Amino acid sequence: MTPKTICITGATAGIGQATAKCLAKEGHRLIVIGRREKRLKEFAEVLRKEYMIDCLAISIDIRSREEVQNAIGALPAEWRAIDVLINNAGLAAGLDPVHKASLDDWDQMIDTNVKGLLFMSRLISPGMVDRGEGHIINIGSIAGKEVYSNASVYCATKHAVDALSKGMRQDLLPYGIKVTAVHPGAVDTEFSTVRFKGDQERVSQVYKGFEPLRAEDIAETILFALSRPPHVNIDDILIMPSAQASATQIRRK
Ligand code: NDP
Ligand code: 8X3
Q: Would you please indicate which residues are annotated as catalytic (active-site) residues?
């Protein structure tokens, strides 16, 4: 594959970090984004040294329209032509019924999973349109295909990612831009630690007695979608652990 300039949000952990490594191995130039600045910079340095690639680290909160606008607007000339955008940053906060859940948790999920993805896409897609090529990969979830109890807002944000992926594919079709949605089931990352705000007892229950997906499984799936020839687009992938049949059905030992 010819080296491309690829922007990945949420590259300080989990799926984003594994994807950055997987794409660095293939020799791509990477823009990595996340809030934890020290961790991001150290990671970018590892990518440059281990894989000998160009890597630009941008520490921003994608919930902030201003931070996203300033960062994309200030990209050095050699980083402006972004071939691929991977909208991966996202989270679940809490697991509570609608009458008890925290409004702050709702704000955080909606602002990150939906509005952050939109800010990034709105600012990066015009360059793709001008160049008549590009690829946007959105990370959805099994929670974007089904709804489960105590997660109505997380599921709503991921259903929104599903809808936005379909809508973007239609809007960007005339300009030769591919849009792919990747929807994972349970992946063992920092996801549950974030959801349960560090409560390790609850986190350990999530992955107990079965083998979840690894972040690398999703990275390889993203690489597969990216490396298809120009006439092929992977629209939508639902990827689950073998032990998981739906959002709530898991075969545990
Ligand atoms: P992690 O918590 O391991 O990683 C999330 C990443 O998103 C981190 O790098 C975090 O970095 C970044 N992030 C979160 N909020 C922001 C923000 N406001 N601005 C910039 N970066 C942000 O989780 P995963 O790797 O599992 O999650 C990646 C995606 O995959 C998410 O969209 C998630 O919903 C989805 N997903 C996860 C599944 C799972 O079971 N793990 C299953 C299905 C989908 P930092 O904190 O440094 O900002
Ligand atoms: C993450 C997977 O099942 O916790 O999106 O919603 S799940």
A: 154
